[in-house]
Structures are given as structure tokens and as C-alpha cells.
Amino acid sequence: MLTDLVELPGGSFRMGSTNFYPEEAPIHTARVAAFAIERHPVTIAQFAEFVADTGYVTVAEQELDPAQYPGANPADLVPGGLVFRPTAGPVDLRDWRQWWEWKPGASWRYPFGPDSGISFEDRPDHPVVQVAYPDAAAYARWAGRRLPSEAEWEYAARGGSTTTYAWGDEPMPGGRLMANTWQGRFPYQNDGALGWTGTSPVGLFPPNNYGLVDMIGNVWEWTTTRFTGHHQLNQPVESCCAPTLSPDPTVNQALKGGSHLCAPEYCHRYRPAARSPQSQDSATTHIGFRCVADLA
Hints:
Elements: E1 5-8, E2 11-15, E3 28-32, E4 35-38, H1 44-54, E5 80-84, E6 100-104, H2 133-142, H3 150-158, E7 184-185, E8 189-190, E9 220-226, E10 252-256, E11 275-279, E12 287-288, E13 292-294
């Protein structure tokens, strides 16, 4: 069953920020046409229905082409994905390799690998992860929908607000946790967000003013906008869902929303304006997506 859509009016808004990371600048007026967006990220159960209906094989489940990865260790050129592993203690936060591990066999079915004891059947209401950009696009095409542009995504996430966070200017108003983000010292101590130390069931945290849940935290979400070092004001909007879309490891898409791994000292990106680059072929334990639809 597809996620219900929330219809949003078209309009203009102030996009970006100059208070955190340089890639979020410049602040500018962006305009979007009316569109509808899924209320929550695509879940594991929904993605499983798509795979059962189509026989689709995700990027993480496919053999890798050595020509696309010159210089790579042949032992690493096997189906799999990136898996987050907490460290034993404090580490240099400039080196992400300290907490990310390439795991052969990791996929949407077994996000942490087939020997982890965690399978897709255990978490049907969690956002699907270990999905690369073409996988998200293929699902959207099957659903008769598409992926959002970065401007559409940020417009929806703000919920009409102009504040730092979608819910205001304080990260935890009144001490209330508003999104699934890292609680503790990254990357070795996580006390859990409402008890969850990884992804959480969709809708566990409060909706924004448009009634959308998990726009912030839980999982990063793919957009059709190609990432650049700062906002390109005249950047053309790209379509996501061509039938022959294949991943290009040299091209980065803009991710939005932050994830359960975002922490103030490392990744203060649990804000609507935040953005992050990710290569089209990447499949990890903290990236998912949601779809949008055009309105007549």
C-alpha cells in the first residue's frame, strides 16, 4: 500500500542558511509549484511489496563493475553496502572511516549484513535503507510518482516556518525530543531517541505543520538535485525516474533531513536547510527516501 499524499500549495520561500555549513548558502528565494508529498518515508514493507511485484534487484545486490572503481581492492567489489558501527570510544571526527564499514551482503533485506540477525521482516514499519539513488527512482516510477527536488523537499520540511528547525529555534523545545537524532557522544555513546538507537518506526516523532513526519532525522532522503558546494540559483530541475537510470559513482545527489546519526558535535544537519552530498551508487544504513506527485 502506498503512503498517503499530503497536497501542498505552490509558493515561494527563503531557502538555505548562513549559520551552519557553507554548502547551505546563499539564502535565496525559491519557488515551487503545487505538489503532493508522501506523509512519511517509504517503509521496508512498502519497498518489499515493490520488489515482490517487479522482481527488482537493488544496486547493493548487484555485482560491481571494476571499470567504475579504478584502484579499488577486488575483494571489496562484491554486492554490499556501508554499515554504521559505533566506535569503542572517542575518535577523530574528521575520519568517517572510523565508524563506517563496507559489509558484503548488506542490502535492504539485511541492512547490517546477512549475519547480523536483523532482517527486513523484523522492521516492516521502519524506513527502508540500503537503497541507492536508482533504487529510490525505480520505486517512485513503479508507484506512479517521482522523487522531490531539493527545493520541494525543503519547502515541505519547513512546514511554512522560517525558523532554524522546523518546529522553532530551539533543538528541544521544553526538553522535548522532536526527531530521531543521536543522543549522546558521537560515534561511541548513543542513549537512544525514545529508546531507538538506529532507525525508528515512521511517525514516532511529532509531525510538522503540514502533517509530515520524519522529514527531520531518522533517515536522510534522496532528492533529484545534484549536489554542489553551494546553492546554484539557476540549476535546472532534473527528472529522477527515467527507465534506464543507472548509478554514476562520480555524481553526487543532495540528501536532505539528517538522520539518526546526526549529532551537534559532528553533523548538526537535523534542520530543513541542511544538505549533504552522496554518490548515486551509495547504499547505507541511514539513507532512505519519500516520493512526491504532481498536481493537475
